[in-house]
Fold this protein.
Amino acid sequence: MSFSRRQLLLRTLGLAAPLATPLLCQANPLQPHLNAPRLVGQGKFSYWGFDVYVASLWSDASALRADQWHTQRLALELNYLRDFEGKAIAKRSIDEMQQQSPLPPERARAWASTLEALFPDVRKGQRLTGIYVPGSSAHFLFNDKPLGSIADAELAQRFFAIWLAPNTSAPALRQQLLADK
């Protein structure tokens, strides 16, 4: 029995009838989740000519407004095209947040520590998926398996703003993710 990536993502998020395997039939610990997810947009991120990842944005909103992304539950999947250390992913995330809006040094250190503890090393072909819960938290999957959560609403929003805020360092990718909205 084979399934599309979308079907597997939906099943991993607990959004469709479970597959007939014990592991995937277990309750998803990352509730709440998207109710009726749809792919909003997708794009490849490259840096200095190197392909880094393909990003896919999912939403359960029937009409996602780019200026209101932070008010809706979203899932952002990054399918890596290169190997990266988790610590480097965390550092780059903080750097991107700082570029958008400076953080107090103590907060930057605390958030860096949180992200370093959360993100694993990734290899080409592996996926990190973040599920954004507005005003609350973010939950993460690594290759469709629960990874951990961020209970800090501000950190969760600032993390997703890396890709979705108007002042992102990757405006072309933002446009692709938000499907030109």
